[in-house]
Write a structure and sequence with these properties.
With 347 residues, the chain is of the alpha/beta class. Helices cover 29% and strands 26% of the residues. The C terminus is likely disordered.
């Protein structure tokens, strides 16, 4: 799961100075791909990873200098080389990784807050960075789907780039050449944090909620039984909604970034939930239970969206923990399918 959401929350919470590191280009194989970010704080703590430990030690050594000078820097790590890196270990990933480190200070902090504002409101944001000959970031801009541009971009933002983004179905992150600028720029799309709503707070929902939170989902648990809706069972979820299906579904505004799992183990309540959820905007709707049970649930009840049942990838899972793993694996697979940002042209 993309670390930017945790990074933005950390920046908002701390008074410590920090440096944001972003992978801008990968040639060959690497642990993380373009757009992956991590945060280095001045007290030595770190949030996120860019590699399996191959890069972080070297990057952390550069943090004090970047904080002192206030100037961004770019690095190229040749993981194909047999030469030991700064801490004496040989790299082993086999690719070439380009990383840019930027001090989080002054106006950049405010723009990151604005980025968080849009992502929290389920709005995609495209990041664009332009580099100088020394590898420092000279210009950067954030573009929302309704073409709101913010950041530090000198001169007019290239229309060629906007049209390219509008027509690009792949939403691929990385470097691209822009002829109007006569230079390469880095482009990456930040997507809102996905939300998982679990309908049913039984014992098998607990490992699912915990694993979903750990993998970057904002989790909501909903049930009508007070004895199950105890924060002790779901310490890390965003919220717990107590109420019957028609009550709790009515409390929520659903978006295409939402995933829902129906697992109350009560046939009538599951039927109500599927009927209500089938009318909402959802990225994913899954039903726990056998295929024959789901067929009975859907009898004489048309649902407009695809229903995943039995829920989860087929890995022979048994027990709540393994079933939770299979469900999260399927959610990640669904999330990582081709995504497209829709940026509306000005009238």
């Amino acid at each position: 799961m993309e670390e930017i959401h945790r990074i933005l929350e950390a920046i908002q919470r701390t008074d410590l100075r920090s440096v944001l590191a972003t992978i801008t280009q990968v040639e060959g194989s690497a642990y993380r791909k373009e757009g992956a970010s991590m945060l280095f704080l001045e007290d030595g703590s770190q949030l996120g990873v860019l590699s399996a430990g191959c890069l972080e030690a070297h990057l952390s050594v550069c943090v004090p200098d970047i904080l002192e000078t206030g100037v961004s820097r770019s690095f190229v790590f040749d993981m194909q080389s047999l030469e030991p890196m700064a801490w004496g270990e040989e790299p082993g990933c086999g690719g070439v990784v380009h990383v840019t480190m930027e001090p989080v200070q002054d106006e950049f902090v405010d723009y990151l807050y604005t980025l968080k504002h849009y992502l929290d409101r389920k709005i995609e944001v495209i990041l664009v960075k332009k580099f100088g000959s020394d590898g420092s970031v000279t210009d950067y801009g954030f573009l929302t789907r309704d073409r709101h541009l913010f950041g530090e971009w000198r001169g007019e933002f290239p229309q060629e780039l906007i049209h390219s983004m509008l027509s690009d179905d792949s939403r691929r992150s990385g470097m691209r050449f822009v002829s109007s600028l006569q230079s390469d720029i880095f482009v990456h799309t930040y997507y809102p944090k996905p939300r998982l709503i679990i309908f049913g707070a039984g014992p098998d929902a607990r490992p699912l909620a915990a694993l979903a939170t750990a993998t970057g989902y904002a989790v909501i648990v909903s049930d009508w039984r007070p004895v199950l809706c105890d924060r002790r069972y779901f310490p890390d979820v965003e919220s717990i909604l107590l109420g019957f299906p028609e009550e709790t579904v009515g409390m929520m505004h659903f978006t295409p970034y939402d995933y829902a799992i129906v697992m109350t183990h009560n046939f009538r309540r599951d039927q109500q939930l599927v009927q209500l959820l089938g009318e909402r905007q959802l990225r994913y709707l899954g039903i726990l239970g056998s295929k024959s049970r789901t067929e009975r649930l859907l009898t004489a009840m048309p649902v407009r969206i695809k229903v995943h049942s039995p829920v989860g990838l087929v890995i022979g899972a048994e027990g709540p923990e393994e079933i939770a793993v299979s469900i999260i694996a399927e959610l990640i697979l669904e999330k990582n399918k081709k995504q497209k940002v829709v940026i509306h042209e000005a009238e």
